[in-house]
Amino acid sequence: MTVDVVEFTRSNPTPLVVHLVELAARGDGEGWINFGPALSPEEFSAVPHKSGLGKWFSGRGPAVPMATWTPPLDGARPRPAQVGVQHGTGPNALDRLEEVGCALPGGWTRRQDHAKHGIVAELPNAVDTAAMIEWLISAMAALSPLISTGDQWLAEVHYPSD
Q1: Which of 27, 75, 134, 160 has the fewest Cβ atoms within 10 angstroms?
Q2: Contact indicator for 58, 116 with CB cutoff of 8 Å
Q3: Which helix (H) or strand (E) is 85 found in, with range?
Q4: What is the three-class DSSP state of 16?
C-alpha cells in the first residue's frame, strides 16, 4: 500500500479530484481516500481527546469529522463508489444535516447513519467529484463546531500495491 498526502483547498479541490479520478479509472475497487480539515494549532488544542479505553466504550465517533471515499468496482459484480463521514455528533446525523440545508444529494443512496461509525452513502455512476467533495466538506463543517471556515484540507490517498 502506498499513501500520498495531498493538500487542497475548499475553493480548489483539483489536487484531490485528480486522485479520485485515477483510483476510479482503475475499475478494481481498490484503494481509498480519507480527508479532513487541516486544523490550526489553536483548533487542534481545542479538540477533546479520549483515552484508549474511552474510544473503545464511547458510543460516538471522532470530535473532528473525517470523510472517506472508496472507488467503484467494475466487472461481473460491480459495486458503486461510496462516501462516508465519521463524526462525533451521535445518531441521525443525516436528519440534522437536512435541517441545516445539507441534505444527502439526489441520486445518492443512504447505507448507514450510525452514532459511532458515521454516515455511508453509495454514489450514482455519474457524480461530479468537485460537488461531492464540497458536500462532504459542508457536512463535516455542519457536524463539528471545531471546524472553522478555513480553506485548508488534507487527504491521505491509499493506493493498492500493484
Answers
A1: 75
A2: yes
A3: strand 82-86
A4: helix
Alpha-carbon distance 130 to 127, whole Å?
9
Q: Is the pLDDT of residue 59 over 60?
A: no
CA–CA separation, 76 and 47 (whole Å) = 45
Q: Which of 30, 15, 31 is nearest to 133 (CA)?
A: 15
CA dihedral (44, 69, 131, 63) in degrees, to 10, reads: -30
pTM of the entire predicted model: 0.85
**Residue in this structure with the C-alpha cell 479520549, named with its chain if needed:** 50
> Which of helix, strand or coil describes residue 132?
helix
C-alpha cell at 25: 479509472
Contact present, 75 and 129 (Cβ < 8 Å): no
Contact 146, 44 (CB under 8 A): no
Counted residue by residue, the chain has a size of 162
